[in-house]
Amino acid sequence: MSANLNPVHENMPEQRPYKRVLLKMSGEVLMGPNEFGLHPETVARVARDIQTVIDTGVQVCVVVGAGNIFRGVSGASQGMDRTAADHMGMLGIVINALCLQNALEAIGVQTRVQSAIRMDEICEPYIRRRAIRHMDKGRVVIFAAGTGNPYFTSDTGASLRASEMNCDLIAKGTKVDGVYNADPMTNPDAVRFEKVSYMDVLTKDLRVMDATAISLARDNSIPIAVFNIREENNFANIVKGEGTFTIVGD
Fold it and tell me: Tens digit of pLDDT per residue, the chain (250 long)?
């Protein structure tokens, strides 16, 4: 049965120890104040936030989108073949993954990029057991190229990889600090929810992640923490159960 959507402005009272967390963020995060592309200072700040979590002993894997470079759905809407457009989006994800890897290794965090589409000269192919071994050794693993299939979003790729990696949490980094009953960017009266069920996200179209991604997380009982990744150290706070965010769960 769905939980009641009781709007609150309190922090989550329960703190949970997490062993392995998947960070999902949109490509738009990496463009910072720019209108497109990559903003080096912002990428470096995200890398430092990930390092802070790694330093606590929590294993981290990452999925990033490509909205700062190319979005397949947008290309298809302008007359491109959807499959070709989605493949272009997957390549954009690889670009973002390599950029984030460079920023992480610049501060001493060992990182591996694993792509769902083979491109052996620049990154590893996706191999589940190898990814787990990397994380067990304290390395960050960035999963690139989505699921490797058109018609699936990077959100679905995140839920899939989180399920395969047996992650305890999906940390969904956005430009707002949780799930609201309306768009807080346009509606000043929008109210944030502290907790919402998977089913309510689906039936009320709350647009946390796409329906396939939510269903996959629900089927594997992986909670999703929706938080504002644009503020420094928020990722570490979420992992500690602190700060402002919304939990999507049972």
Answer: 334 454 443 444 355 579 999 999 999 999 999 999 999 999 999 999 999 999 999 999 999 999 999 876 777 778 899 999 999 999 999 999 999 999 999 999 999 999 999 999 999 999 999 999 999 999 999 999 999 999 999 999 999 999 999 999 999 999 999 999 888 889 989 999 999 999 999 999 898 999 999 999 999 999 999 999 999 999 999 999 999 999 999 8
Locate 172 and state its tokens. Answer: 């969904």
- Cα dist from 26 to 81, 96, 156, 220, whole Å: 23, 10, 13, 22
* Domain 20-249 fold: Carbamate kinase (3.40.1160)
- The residues spanned by each domain of the chain are 20-249
pTM of the model as a whole: 0.91
User: What is the token pair recorded at 157?
Assistant: 């790729």
